[in-house]
Design a protein that fits this description.
Number of strands: 20
Distance between the termini: 41 Å
CATH architecture: 4-Layer Sandwich
Largest sheet: 8 strands, mixed
Number of domains: 1
Number of helices: 5
Order of helices and strands: HEHEHEEEEEHEHEEEEEEEEEEEE
Radius of gyration: 19 Å
Structural class: alpha+beta
CATH superfamily: Endonuclease/exonuclease/phosphatase
């Protein structure tokens, strides 16, 4: 199976070489795009999945999760997507903590996102709670050619975790782009105890990236996700080791001076990150971005932190009380531009 996947990957990489020679026919007014990543925090439907530990998010569960609350959650996530791009919503949206394909379809079709030609790519992962990653894409901007889940094996003694989503496709029918959406193992049980799990996930991701660069040294690549580690942590250094990548989230910008994407007591962390090919930071490349992404800390995504001062992300629940917020994470944004002759 691994060899089959490798052969398929080589085929798609070969296609990307051919595509680099296609003349650019994109107008200067239609060559800029946005990419959004958002940990939406527990987007569950209201139905019981006997194979997953979703009991907390059922009508008779501890959170009393019902159709009204579910609908509000969908509207709130869609609002973030719309707000992020203004008149031009993001071409790509990476999501994590989504339960299944149904919640993604509901997000698109119950909120009007379908009017912006959003489609989705999702695979069920072995996570015990049933939370997965997914990619939304606008069909007129991005054409997926191949997608697959990359298994993250943590050994027989560890609980199973989320797959890494890999997608290869074309931006504006001409620019090859490799996209990874990740959600590394959490810090449950303590930072030190859980650290090897994130390092294992980073190693698997790095191995895949190296195989791509081996066949295409000029690959355009975006890795986005909730890594449950900061950019300076060992796992994140492993992701970018031995490959020409740069982390855009080392010193991210923000709209309202937030210094991280989630908060634990007094401390902000930057767990949500974008990593890109260094090729994309050169104006000589076909696809470029800026060396710094942005935290979208809109005021409506924040609330006053009465316990630890300042602000904190406005969540869906405060304990077991539904407060109709958004997520415990703030979304992040990066720009893309196709360079024309």
């Amino acid at each position: 199976m691994k060899e089959l996947r490798k052969n398929k990957l080589i085929q798609y990489l070969a296609l990307s070489f051919l595509l680099f020679g296609i003349p650019q026919v994109i107008s200067s007014q239609d060559n800029t795009f946005g990419v959004l990543f958002y940990n939406v925090e527990n987007l569950f439907d209201t139905k019981d999945d006997s194979l997953k530990r979703d009991e907390e998010f059922l009508p008779d569960g501890e959170k009393h999760w019902n159709n009204y609350r579910y609908s509000q959650k969908l509207k709130n996530i869609a609002r973030v997507i719309y707000e992020s791009g203004g008149w031009n919503p993001p071409a790509l949206v990476g999501l994590c903590e989504v339960e299944n394909k149904k919640v993604i379809d509901d997000l698109i079709w119950q909120t009007g996102l379908n009017n912006k030609s959003y489609h989705s790519i999702h695979f069920e992962s072995p996570d015990l709670r049933g939370i997965d990653v997914a990619l939304l894409y606008r069909k007129e901007h991005f054409t997926p050619l191949e997608s697959s889940p990359i298994k993250v094996s943590l050994g027989h003694q560890s609980r199973q975790t989320r797959d890494i989503l890999y997608v290869f496709g074309l931006l504006k029918d001409t620019i090859p782009l490799h996209v990874f959406v990740t959600h590394f193992p959490s810090r449950y049980g303590g930072v030190a105890k859980s650290k090897p799990k994130r390092y294992a996930a980073a190693t698997i991701l790095n191995d895949t990236i190296q195989s791509i660069y081996k066949h295409d040294p000029n690959a355009n690549m975006i890795i986005m996700g909730d890594f449950n580690d900061n950019p300076t942590d060992e796992s994140m250094q492993k992701v970018i080791s031995e490959v020409p990548l740069q982390n855009l989230s080392v010193k991210p910008g923000s709209l309202n001076n937030s210094t991280g994407t989630l908060k634990h007591r007094f401390e902000w962390n930057i767990f949500d990150q974008f990593i890109v090919s260094k090729e994309m930071l050169s104006t000589e490349g076909t696809l470029v971005t800026t060396p710094q992404n942005k935290i979208l800390d809109y005021q409506f995504l924040l609330e006053k932190d009465n316990a630890y001062t300042g602000n904190k992300p406005f969540r869906t629940y405060l304990g077991y009380k539904f407060i109709n917020g958004f997520s415990d994470h703030l979304p992040i944004w990066m720009n893309l531009e196709i360079m024309t002759p």
